[in-house]
Amino acid sequence: MGIVQIDLFTTLDGVAQAPGGPEEDPEGGFAFGGWQAPLSDGTVGEQVVAGMETMDALLLGRRTYDIFAEYWPRQQGHIADVLSSVPRYVASRHPLRLAWEGAEQLGPDLGDAVRGLRERHAETHVIGSLDLVQTLLADGLFDRLNLWVYPLLLGAGKRVFGTGTVPTNLRLAEPVVTTPGGVQLQRYERLDGTPAVGTMSAGDAEGR
């Protein structure tokens, strides 16, 4: 059985709207489109490429698919080659005409569709696609959550963990990677069950 990995760029206060550019998603009058660019560096690029090496399928929301389909087929380089070579699936409630060769729209039942992807592919990545990610988080339809956390506070914008987020246990799967500019890559695995609760004693607080 394969796994589904979510890859997101987010600020420290959880905003993941339009990291790539001002036109990416201006919904709600968002004024900080492109916030990722000033802090990206060679370490970010290396880790992004490394994370794609084992990807054998790509799952996107409609908006992100439109952005990718317009941009990546015209590019050259390793990332463009990977994105163009793997099967690409698009989640949308409305019928789509998908011009990017190799793209396929999923059926209306997202849960069934994701289970089908797990059966067909070893590692399906969801890149960006924040609206889709909200559904995957709420329905537990993911196995790993990879967050690029940028040292920024924007205060407004679409967030990774909104009001529909359900209580979920996560485990840090690998050591955190930190770039010279302070960006952190945090990789988590989803665990079964819901978060436990307890009472902190004075001894716990003092480390005894």
Automatic annotation (TrEMBL):
Q: Where is the Bacterial bifunctional deaminase-reductase C-terminal domain?
A: 4-175
InterPro entries the UniProt entry points to: DHFR-like_dom_sf, RibDG_C
Alphabetically, which GO biological process terms does the record hold? Answer: riboflavin biosynthetic process
Q: Specify the superkingdom.
A: Bacteria
Any GO MF annotation of the entry: 5-amino-6-(5-phosphoribosylamino)uracil reductase activity
| Pfam hit, one | RibD_C
Q: What is this protein called?
A: Dihydrofolate reductase
Taxonomic source organism: Sanguibacter keddieii (strain ATCC 51767 / DSM 10542 / NCFB 3025 / ST-74)
